[in-house]
Amino acid sequence: MVVTMALFAFSLVFFLGAVDPSLAALGMVILGGATLIWVSGQLRPEKANWSWSRLDFAVGLFVAYSLCRYSMTSPEYEARFELIQVISCGVAFLFSSKAIRDRDARRLFVLIVGVVALFQSGMGIWQAFTKSDYIFGWERPDLYNGRGSGTFVCPNHLAGFLEMSLGLIVARAAIVRKEAGTVERSILVKFLLVYVAIMVALGIVTSLSRAGWLSATIGMITVLLMGGWRGRQIWLRLLVVMAVFVCAAAVFWSLEPIRNYFLKTVVADGGNQKVSLGDPTLGGRTMMWSGTIDIIRQNPLIGTGMGTWQWHYQKVKDYRILSFPDYTHNDYLNLASDYGMIGVILMCVVFVMFFLHAFRVVAGAQSSEDKAFAVGAVSAILAILVHSWFDFNLHIFGNSAFLAIIMGTTAGIPLSGSPTRSTPVWQRAVAIVIVFILVGIVAYLFVPTLKAFQITRSGDAAKYELNYEDAVKFYSEANRIDPRYPKPLIKQGDIFRDQLAWRVGPGKLRERRDLAMKAVQAYDQALRLNPYMSDVWVSRGRVQEMIGDNDEALSSYLKAIDVAPVSAYAHFVLGQFYRERGESQKAVEAFEKADRYFLYNDPMFQMSQWYEKEKLKSGPKQE
């Protein structure tokens, strides 16, 4: 089971963190295989020697709450993929806590973690030095150039994975007394573990993730402070941790790009003897946090719904945030916004129960291996919790699955003095039923999600080749398979809209009307699924404007601005609408807002604004 669980987590990690259904597909297949393996083990009494714990109930309560919250969430599509992630992590936790219970399995797990982390850090270091933006054929955004991200898209998510791995590896190297049957082999294994730990630390350094640097440091301090204070124990831990720190610090300070990146973070005012942040917004994070707090105040108890932050944030978005962020770069605020305070409390209970169990294992560990894993797990979880204040690592499927398995494996370590006995039949039966229900829900949701996603991609490829007829067929099939997926409907509407723009002349009037009706129908279906899509409202308005339905067009443009008040695009299109109908004053106001909200100083916006102002100055045209 330990190999199966490792394959589940690391298959998600290797495919860009499994940020979409197609990238998560292999992991879902492996989870299905793990289900069969675990259930077959429960049918053999000698293999089942576990019992339910308070941590199990805490995890179960959060999964149950997520199911309830999903049933009430609109729009549904983003909530669905998040529910798949939550249930999968819950099942992975259950399998890990009930099946990975012996020391050999935990030793193998740390070994696999070390191999994967070494590969990830090596790849990240290579990306940083070669400035390559390719990940197995995928190309990541240019803004990450010169930073290591391994097989993740974002370097911060690589740092999150590596800081969890680092805690497990360093704790094993520093605490386990005997790694092999002979002294020579034990020393060799120790050196290999320290080497891997140093490479992982260098991977975190070259990710240029400042939150990763801070989190890894806290994780290492945690290893140093836990695990006993007897002379030999503390000196070995100090030696290992200092070796990692010294090597990482030497590389950190000797490489000018990394050193300069750090120095840009703080600004020293020599005259006033003050040190301040170079960017007080932390890359726009504080602006997103401020808006998120407003959302939480409006929906404090149960939140806005799973995966809905990105849509509700548009209402309170700071216009200086030019991108369309999916998450608030703070897992705690994101959790409170989506799940409300009920969800926050339930998740806090999960982590409190975990830390209590881990501390009890450390205090009464029956072996140095048990203590090493528990200390490493505390270091790993504490590091990712610190990092989560600045990023959204726990919304990345690969990292959240890895965290769930670490927590589950730690929960499976028996406490000192706890009896070992065969699990009663009724408990095994209840566990099997629960697992089949949860895995069944995942399969029911995931299979159509994956099929529709893949078929929509085929439609995108056909559209790219200008094969619009086949593209529409693909999008229609995707909509048939997954009627709650808005993207294929939007894509159909866009094709009909583009065809409409080229149908000109009196003889094309009927065809224009038919295309407009199809486009509006597709957009309306998509907007019923998700009414928060500002750009879709704009597209709907443009279609209506093309066929002369000006009242409906204006209504669509105003709705686009209502759901996204600082959308420069919506204000610009509204300005064009007013300009073409001779309402120059309203056009100027719309163009001014578009210019203010679009901070790239686009000449198109500026010229439109200037043109309308000139018209106002010259007065009405004299006939």
Topology:
Blueprint (H helix, E strand, L loop, with lengths): L1 H13 L6 H22 L11 H18 L4 H24 L3 H28 L3 E2 L2 E2 L15 H21 L7 H24 L3 H16 L5 H24 L1 H8 L2 E4 L4 E4 L7 H14 L10 H8 L14 H33 L4 H20 L9 H15 L13 H40 L3 H14 L5 H15 L7 H21 L4 H13 L3 H14 L4 H13 L3 H14 L5 H16 L5
Antiparallel strand pairs: 1-2, 3-4
Helix pairs in contact: 1-2, 1-5, 1-15, 2-4, 2-16, 3-4, 3-13, 4-15, 4-16, 5-6, 5-7, 6-7, 6-8, 6-9, 6-14, 6-15, 7-9, 8-9, 8-14, 11-12, 11-13, 13-14, 14-15, 16-17, 16-18, 17-18, 18-19, 18-20, 19-20, 20-21, 20-22, 21-22, 22-23, 23-24
Explain this structure.
The protein has helices at residues 2-14, 21-42, 54-71, 76-99, 103-130, 155-175, 183-206, 210-225, 231-254, 256-263, 285-298, 309-316, 331-363, 368-387, 397-411, 425-464, 468-481, 487-501, 509-529, 534-546, 550-563, 568-580, 584-597, 603-618; strands at residues 134-135, 138-139, 266-269, 274-277. With 623 residues, the chain is an all-alpha fold. The chain has two domains: 2-267 and 288-439, no CATH class; 440-618, Tetratricopeptide repeat domain (Serine Threonine Protein Phosphatase 5, Tetratricopeptide repeat). The strands form two sheets. Strands 1-2 form a two-stranded antiparallel sheet. Strands 3-4 form a two-stranded antiparallel ribbon. The chain starts with a helix and ends in a 5-residue tail after the last helix.
